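Hi P.,

Sorry for the delay on this. The queue was packed all week, but I finally got your sequence through. Input first:
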Amino acid sequence: MLIRPCNHSYPERHRVCDIEVDGKYYRILRCVTCSERLAFEQIREESACTSVLGLPLWLTGEHLRRWVANEKKLQTQMSEHLEVTDGLQWSSGKPVERWVGTDEEYDRLQRERAVSEREILDTARALQSRKEQSDRQLLNPQVHP
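Then the structure:
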């Protein structure tokens, strides 16, 4: 039995990775709003991206919520430069949006996103590393004369 995804949307519910099991493809999703619960969703082979990971599982708690807030802010900023077309996305049935802003605006927003995401991931990674080092020290205490 698969754990079905909730009805929350991106960025609260985001992709962790895609996997293949017995010739079928699944997306592993995590929802921040649902206590960071993982869910599995069967997807089409064309939608699967098994070679590229999504948001890392070790990004949790406050840092994950910060990432969600930054993604929402970026979505709001980018939505000011999007125009809905007549088409629908085949994978979700949602309207297709087209960028109508300048290339410079798009590049600036993407740079801001990359810097913000890198800062969050670097901070979380450093804290994770310190925790792992502390755990190792607790498990293997060194006796000094």
